[in-house]
Amino acid sequence: MTTANKVRDRVCRELDRLVPVSHCGDRPGLLVALSGGADSVALLLLARIWADIHDVPLAAAHFNHALRGAESTCDEAFCRDLCAELEIDLAVGHPPAGTDAHSEEDLRRIRRSFLLTTLAADTRLAVCATGHHRNDQIETVLMRLFRGTGPDGLRGIRPRSGAFIHPLLSCGRDELTSWLTDRGQQWRDDATNTSGDNLRARMRREFLPVVHALFGQTADDQVMRFSDLVDDDARELDRQADELLASWRQDGLPLRCLPLAGLQAKPKTLGARLVRRICRKSTEETSPLRGNRLDDLLNWIRTARSGAMMELSEGWSVVLEFETLRFGHVSDPPPASPWRLECRDASATELENPLPEKGLNPSAAYWELTCPHGSLHGELRIRPWREGDRLQPLGMTGHKKISDILLEHRVPITCRAGVPVVADDEGPFWLVGLCRDERTRLLPCTTLGITLHVDVHPGEEPSGEV
Fold first, then answer.
1. Taking the model in full, what pTM does it have?
2. How many domains does the chain have?
3. Is residue 260 part of a domain?
4. Which of 7, 337, 364, 411 is the most exposed, having the fewest neighbouring CB atoms within 10 Å of its CB?
5. What tens digit of pLDDT does each residue of 247-291 get?
6. Cα(203)–Cα(375) distance, rounded to whole angstroms?
7. What DSSP state is assigned to residue 398?
8. Res 458 pLDDT > 70
């Protein structure tokens, strides 16, 4: 097999692996980020071969940062001509007016936003492929090493990260340029990739030649081997973390939660990974939490008391609720608490054998209570409990704060707003699912009663009263 065919087959296999197959067995289309450089041009041509094999849509997107004057304009024109020749739709983006972003990170953020917007605008396309290759991987690992990243960072560029895939990571820069040359395909060279003053350009120009002079050209292979070894260890930690989370979920632990004792009992490396598994927006994305903030969290839980909250980073926070850590993000929708109260005359059976109160989260999503008809006065209403609300629990001679009852029942702080009270003109008489007032006690002489039914209807607002 020729070198050209090896490159083609290797990239097509990666695209088969990285582009998801729909539930119907169909493979969706692909968006290619096209700069005009050798790596992205090779990616576009290889993606065209792959797309023709699977008969799937293919599109391209070019973002003109307009930082190199006429050169940037020529890059855009080259991409337009290439896509027209290949009959591939091309979306072109430019920085918003007044944009003043010159750092690598700012430029990357603007470009990624354009690519994501382009991807979302075409429902035929599933993911966006970029031309990051083996040399980019080596440079990334070395840069992260000297910046003091943790093990996850030393894994380098991941083959898939959210909506982005990187199918060229097994191909070197020289392999790609040779493949294009053999096909007679031109590309655009960006001089700033080697002569610029950004960190990656300086590494290529100043640092890597010294590394190769000291350790030989095989130094690149050793960096890749190091990254692969780190990746193997990280995969094992991922496996252990996923197994633990699955086990805890089977035991009833809610999503976005971790058991305090379980987390404290695990080694620090596994504990940090468990937190990262929770704090991410999707299973395909990496957590934004950095190592120092994870260290702070693992130290905080040693002395934190129930009800304490800690801000993490990137909009994430955690609340300690007794033996459970509940994680949340600022973008999470507020918890809904729609309730409906219905009343009916109690049957003789209910008066003789009162229905038990259901638990705080009953599987049937309703609660019922039977009480003497004469114990209720005026209009009945259901509402959230309020500070200062009190009732007289069964068997007690005095009243008790509802906030204290919630604490005694170990209702997490984040769930307390979802516990309603039923009240009449005299005040609360039922903390739904938890406690009833003494005046609702059924006596042997009770002949008339009323049964209250509290139902939950997701998506509806609380009716407030009946």
1. 0.70
2. 3
3. yes
4. 364
5. 999 888 888 899 999 999 999 989 999 998 888 876 666 778 887
6. 81
7. S
8. no
Six token digits for residue 234? 């990280």
> Does 173 reside within a domain?
yes
Question: Which CATH number goes with the domain that contains 213?
Answer: 3.40.50.620
CB 455, CB 366: distance < 8 Å: yes
- Interval 345-387: pLDDT, tens: 988 888 887 666 665 556 667 888 898 988 898 889 998 888 8
The first and second tokens of residue 38, run together, are: 């050798």
Residue 326: partners with Cβ closer than 8 Å, 6 or more residues away: 254, 256, 257, 318, 319, 412, 414
| CATH code for the domain in which residue 418 is found | 3.50.40.10
For residue 353, what are the contacts with CB-CB under 8 A and spacing of at least 6? none
Q: C-alpha distances in angstroms, 160 versus 14, 34, 169, 290?
A: 11, 18, 11, 20
Going by pLDDT thresholds of 50, 70 and 90, the confidence category of residue 464 is very low
Residues 325 and 379 in one domain: no
CA-to-CA distance for 367 and 364, rounded, in angstroms?
8
Same domain, 7 and 155: yes
